[in-house]
# Entry
Amino acid sequence: MSGSQGADLRGADLNDAFMFDANLSDANLSGAKVGGRGGLDVAKLCRTTLPESFLLQVLNNNRDCEKLNIENHTR
# Structure
């Protein structure tokens, strides 16, 4: 998976998706199922709407804004 910038992935089953270096900036992952190796821990996140299951975890949805040269103002 690459170049998913601004993607609408609401409710998608991404359990087996390999997201190494995937640009998920501005992507909406509400209700998505994400897990396994190669999940969100290896994707690029900036202004990303995370699945509800990740809201209680220590995962910064703006952690890669600087690397991507994107201002991390919330939408």
The mean pLDDT is 85. The chain is about 0% helix and 0% strand.
